[in-house]
């Protein structure tokens, strides 16, 4: 009888397996339930900024009014240096909830070194980013920071490079793992290489052994409320920006991408269901010279690509698999000379019979030099999005919206010397200043000790709890103590 009960229970669980796996898509608590509402709000913000610029252009000197809603939010304040944390109110899109180190103390990085990853020196960037308290991190001078190993950032941090020339390079680069509320703004990130198999401190109280990193510029792993704005990224071993393992609520805006193969990966694996809750806004970026593919390459999730300037790709611009929703609005796509690479889109290793119902839409995009976007699913219909009542601004305004993409005041070609990964590219030096090497008596840690960072997230928690309860149920039924319950269950089945 017990064997029969076990078989029946197994069949019962198998019948509910689709429901269990579907519920995993709901394990991202910060996934927005109505992504089209976020799209519509972004479009409204852009329209307001452009209308304001057109109104002021003929009446006053409105150099700060570009029509870019992020920049116009803070750059028009002549005293922005005294009110740096105002930036946290300026995000748009899915990552607009990222507050970074707002309401925390200012931490001034005075030391550009990275000597000890297990015991960071006070005054260094590594010492700043591991703290538990909210911090708004700025730099005392121009700095060239060569990382010894990956820089593991804690929750509620803003890395704010405005007013200085900050270059971050070396081994591992920036890792955001199981954290929330991080803003990275106005820094150069390049020449990032794999490294690891060493001890790295991630909080003031935890040092752990880290395996080998991939060599991403910025790696977002199981994290949410992330905003990457006005950075220049190039020449990394793996991706420039990768977001995987159930990361969501992300905005990637006003960045300048150049000289790289696989630019951006969104999604861990086609079979990883929690990535269905990934929501990413990609806005006002410039995808420049030397790029090959993945701008981005998406798995699952909802990706809003709006008002970007794609000036080069060698294989494709936007790719995907596992049925992501891609909403492309008001972008400019400039195809390469190669007649075999004119298509903007690529369904990766997927037959047309499978991807024909994927929701990929092009709305208001401008296609240059023979570029073409292949829509599918509801993207073939005018009824694709609830946000269709608020049209995206025409891509003819792309030059204005992306005028300041990248690091403010930096050369737009981003031609920084490299010595690995497919040869050497030479150009203007991007080293910046060396920064200060001392500063032990500086006020680099004048913070208020608050409530600390948010708890670490664990995408597998729901699954673990569910399986634990099921195992307990099976053990109870298959013991003598559960005999009566077994008979009742048989009767019901």
TrEMBL record:
GO terms for molecular function: metal ion binding; pectate lyase activity. The keyword Lyase applies. One of its GO terms (biological process) is pectin catabolic process. Binds 1 Ca(2+) ion. Required for its activity. It holds the Pfam family Pectate_lyase_4. Residues 142-339 form the Pectate lyase domain. It comes from the Eukaryota. It catalyses: Eliminative cleavage of (1->4)-alpha-D-galacturonan to give oligosaccharides with 4-deoxy-alpha-D-galact-4-enuronosyl groups at their non-reducing ends. Transmembrane segments: none annotated. InterPro entries: AmbAllergen, Pec_lyase, Pectin_lyas_fold, Pectin_lyase_fold/virulence, PEL. Gene3D superfamilies: Single-stranded right-handed beta-helix, Pectin lyase-like (2.160.20.10). Keywords: Calcium, Lyase, Metal-binding, Signal. It is an enzyme of class 4 (lyase). Pathway: Glycan metabolism; pectin degradation; 2-dehydro-3-deoxy-D-gluconate from pectin: step 2/5. The keyword Glycoprotein does not apply. Residues 1-23 form the signal peptide. Its EC number is 4.2.2.2. Its cofactor is Ca(2+). Belongs to the polysaccharide lyase 1 family. This is Pectate lyase. The gene is LOC107762739.
